[in-house]
């Protein structure tokens, strides 16, 4: 059973709905969840659920509400039978769950763990932690008095997580991606010294020393008004920037995107890379383009796409977002890979354009990506605008938002492993590629043509799109013999490859075996 409070309250359990129907039951549940696993005095529950009636009346009603809540949490249990989940204990009640069943607690655990991790792992942990957020904590109760301290605590932790996420990006040599988030966080917390320091590092690393110094001066000016001055770490950084400290440059040189560990630059894929480059050039000139990369598992689709992304998403290049379809979750969660790709786009170098396009054209999507809301946008207003979202409306909004994003820079939308895609994602792929309006957009999808469950739905769709001439098929076959030899030489540079090893390996791996793409 899972309880979610980083957004509207949701319970993932045996009940047919995700939260109890009654407002008082929901309030009691919220209050119990603040102290999940611990006893909450009955008085505190009364404070949470009743502010309008005399205590004795409320106290009588509490037992009934608790019984309703038990019925919701454990629909199978006979009414009246003792509950092991919502237990009466001493002066109150306890929700007997492991705190790790609550998303807010897992968020905190990831955040704490990240503090001790090296940048790449910390970045991944913080990504996971931040992705648990769906909206304002404790949703409906965000302004309720009983929840306020906890809501404020969680929101502070979220800001910490965002700051740590930005710092990890800078440490990973991806300062460009960190800058928009840092600026937004600083607007919320204008006296944030550590935020300023990381922003200065990020700006300096991208060659914007003047802006780095301006960030320092803005902070110093605000502190002076309070009779304070910046602390030593920020002051030291300012000094080092002014002195053009070479250590600083070496440490934070604007780096090319790091190759993902374990993903070597591919050998023998020049032809495929050439086709992807041509497709991107067409997209950049305003011709929306789709490329559907297909081949058996392990043949090298992701490696090819990663290599292409590394060059396409250089500063000044395309804005790229990658979404991964996941086997066991695919059909259940509509648009999951698209949302993931949007999240990445919204954190990338074109963050501003992406966020603006979503805010102006796609409120039904923005409500699904609440962590993208900044303090200038009222979440309530977005929810209001998103009311009455239908599948058709979401689709239409995303088509328009993607067109708008392309105005700032060509957009590269990558959807990996589409054989696992949910129907909504496939509908979007279909609609976005068939749309006639010009757009600077390249949609790159990968899939396996057939698996244990026969041919996936995306294979027929890809065929259809290619026949219509709105997408092209890019089959990835096994490596030919010279590429295998090249790979072995790179892998074992000490030399002394036995003659004839490459051809044997290539044959064993089925190199050069003719494969036909689905559409030619
Ligand atoms: N062209 C290549 N050169 C070197 N290694 C490769 C190449 N293509 C794939 N690999 C390696 O093969 C493995 C599987 O490749 P991957 O791209 O993940 O396959 P797919 O996405 O098609 O399932 C990876 O470990 C990758 O590093
Ligand atoms: Mg793959």
Radius of gyration in whole Å, from Cα?
27 Å
- The average pLDDT is 87
CATH class of the largest domain: Alpha Beta
Q: How many extended strands?
A: 10
Shape: globular
Which stretches of 5+ consecutive residues score pLDDT under 50? 250-264, 511-520
Largest beta sheet: strand ordering? 7-8-9-6-10
Q: Indicate how many domains the architecture comprises.
A: 3
Separate helix tally = 22
Distance between the termini: 49 Å
Small-molecule binders here are: adenosine-5'-diphosphate, magnesium ion
CATH homologous superfamily descriptor of the largest domain: P-loop containing nucleotide triphosphate hydrolases
Strand-residue fraction?
Answer: 5-15%
CATH fold annotation of the largest domain: Rossmann fold
The largest β sheet comes out as: 5 strands, parallel
Global structural class: alpha/beta
Level of helix content? 40-55%
Oligomer: single chain
From the 3D coordinates, which CATH architecture of the largest domain would you assign? 3-Layer(aba) Sandwich
List keywords for this structure.
five-stranded parallel beta sheet; alpha/beta; three-stranded antiparallel beta sheet; Arc Repressor Mutant, subunit A; 51% helix; 3 domains; 22 helices; binds magnesium ion; Rossmann fold; 10 strands
Structure description:
With 520 residues, the chain is an alpha/beta fold. It folds into three domains: 1-155, Winged helix-like DNA-binding domain superfamily/Winged helix DNA-binding domain (Arc Repressor Mutant, subunit A, Orthogonal Bundle); 173-256, Tetratricopeptide repeat domain (Serine Threonine Protein Phosphatase 5, Tetratricopeptide repeat, Alpha Horseshoe), CATH 1.25.40; 270-475, P-loop containing nucleotide triphosphate hydrolases (Rossmann fold, 3-Layer(aba) Sandwich), CATH 3.40.50.300. 51% of the residues lie in helices and 9% in strands. The chain contains 22 helices and ten strands. The strands form three sheets. A five-stranded parallel β-sheet has the order 7-8-9-6-10, sandwiched between helices. It has a three-stranded antiparallel β-sheet with strand order 3-5-4. A two-stranded antiparallel ribbon has the order 1-2. Strand 4 (86-89) and strand 5 form a beta hairpin. The two termini are 49 Å apart. The protein binds adenosine-5'-diphosphate and magnesium ion. Adenosine-5'-diphosphate binds at residues 263-264, 266-269, 295, 297-303, 479, 487.
């Amino acid at each position: 059973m899972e309880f979610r409070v980083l957004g509207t309250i949701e319970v993932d359990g045996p009940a047919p709905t995700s939260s109890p129907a009654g407002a008082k039951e929901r309030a009691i549940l919220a209050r119990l969840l603040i102290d999940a696993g611990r006893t909450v005095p009955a008085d505190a529950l009364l404070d949470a659920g009743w502010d309008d009636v005399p205590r004795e009346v409320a106290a009588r009603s509490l037992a009934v509400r608790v019984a309703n809540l038990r019925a919701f949490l454990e629909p199978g249990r006979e009414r009246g039978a003792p509950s092991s989940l919502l237990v009466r204990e001493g002066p109150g009640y306890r929700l007997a769950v492991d705190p790790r069943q609550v998303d807010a607690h897992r968020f905190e655990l990831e955040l704490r763990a990240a503090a001790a991790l090296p940048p790449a792992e910390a970045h991944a942990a913080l990504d996971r932690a931040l992705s648990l957020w769906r909206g304002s904590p404790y949703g409906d109760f965000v302004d309720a008095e009983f929840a306020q301290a906890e809501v404020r605590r969680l929101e502070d932790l979220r800001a910490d997580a965002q700051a740590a996420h930005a710092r990890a990006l800078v440490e990973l040599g991806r300062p460009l991606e960190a800058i928009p988030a840092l600026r937004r966080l600083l607007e919320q917390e204008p006296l944030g010294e550590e935020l300023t320091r990381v922003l200065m590092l990020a700006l300096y690393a991208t060659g914007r020393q003047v802006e780095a110094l301006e960030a320092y001066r803005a902070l110093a000016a605000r502190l002076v008004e309070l009779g304070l001055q910046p602390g030593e770490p920020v002051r030291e950084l300012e000094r080092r920037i002014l002195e053009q400290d070479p250590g600083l440059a070496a440490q934070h040189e604007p780096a090319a995107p790091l190759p993902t560990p374990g993903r070597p630059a591919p050998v023998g894929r020049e032809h495929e890379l050439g086709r992807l480059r041509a497709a991107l050039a067409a997209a950049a000139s305003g011709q929306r383009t789709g490329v559907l990369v297909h081949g058996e598992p392990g043949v090298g689709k992701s490696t090819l796409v990663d290599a292409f992304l590394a060059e396409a998403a250089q500063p000044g290049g395309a804005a790229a977002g990658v979404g991964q379809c996941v086997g066991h979750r695919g059909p259940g969660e509509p648009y999951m890979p698209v949302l993931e790709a949007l999240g990445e786009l919204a954190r990338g170098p074109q963050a501003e354009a992406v966020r603006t396009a979503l805010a102006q054209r796609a409120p039904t999507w923005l409500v699904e990506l609440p962590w993208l809301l900044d303090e200038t946008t009222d979440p309530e207003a977005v929810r209001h605008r998103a009311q009455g979202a239908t599948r058709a409306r979401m689709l239409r909004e995303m088509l328009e938002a993607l067109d708008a994003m392309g105005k700032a820079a060509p957009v590269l939308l990558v959807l990996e492993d589409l054989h696992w895609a949910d129907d909504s994602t496939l509908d979007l792929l279909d609609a976005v590629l068939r749309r006639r309006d010009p757009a600077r957009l390249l949609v790159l999808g990968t899939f396996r043509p057939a698996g244990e469950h026969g041919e996936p739905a995306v294979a027929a769709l890809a065929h259809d799109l290619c026949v219509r001439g709105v997408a092209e098929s890019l089959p990835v076959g096994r490596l030919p013999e010279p590429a295998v030899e090249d790979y072995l030489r790179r892998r074992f540079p000490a030399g002394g490859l036995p003659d004839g090893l490459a051809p044997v390996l290539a044959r064993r791996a089925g190199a050069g075996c003719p494969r036909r793409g689905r559409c030619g």
